[in-house]
Amino acid sequence: MGPSILEQWYSRQCNGEWEHGFGREISTIDNPGWSASVDLHDTQQEATLTRVKIDREHDDWIHHWAEKQKFQIRCGPLNLSEAIEIFVQWFDSHESGPVPIWTVLP
Predict the structure, then answer these.
(1) Cβ neighbours of residue 103 under 8 Å, at least 6 residues apart?
(2) Which pLDDT belongs to residue 54?
(3) Which residue, 16, 26, 36, 1, is CA-closest to 98?
(4) Can you tell me the distance from the alpha carbon of 86 to that of 48, in angstroms, rounded to the nearest whole number?
(5) Is 83 helix (H, G, I), strand (E, B) or coil?
(6) Are the C-beta atoms of residues 98 and 91 closer than 8 Å to each other?
């Protein structure tokens, strides 16, 4: 198996300094589902995105937005990979600098 889209994206961002920067996290929520946030500080990525809601079924949904230099995701229990793809596509379409990657919280 080759590297995931997230691993490929992360590798492209590393420059020896950026990866030591601001916060990022992935955690669970009680809907059930996932919450993810990427801090866009120390990047030239200042684009905002109004809240986008993809509601398919009770456990099949993704909400994402960017504001105050953070990209936010909330999604269903089986939607995290899709949500990460949405982030990577959004970032790449507005790319002007690296951004910290996700860290899975214990």
Answers:
(1) 23, 24, 25, 26
(2) 97
(3) 16
(4) 14
(5) helix
(6) no
Amino acid at 3: P
Q: What is the pLDDT of residue 103?
A: 43
Q: Is the pLDDT of residue 78 over 90?
A: yes
The one-character DSSP state at 20 is G
Give strand ranges (E) for 18-89.
24-29, 33-39, 49-57, 60-67, 70-75
Token pair, residue 68, equals 């105050």
91 close to 71: Cβ distance less than 8 angstroms: yes
pLDDT of residue 5 exceeding 70: yes
Q: At what angle do helices 5-13 and 80-93 cross, to 10 degrees?
A: 40
Tens of pLDDT, residues 39-71: 777 665 667 889 999 999 999 999 999 998 889
Please name the residue that has the structure tokens 């949500």.
83
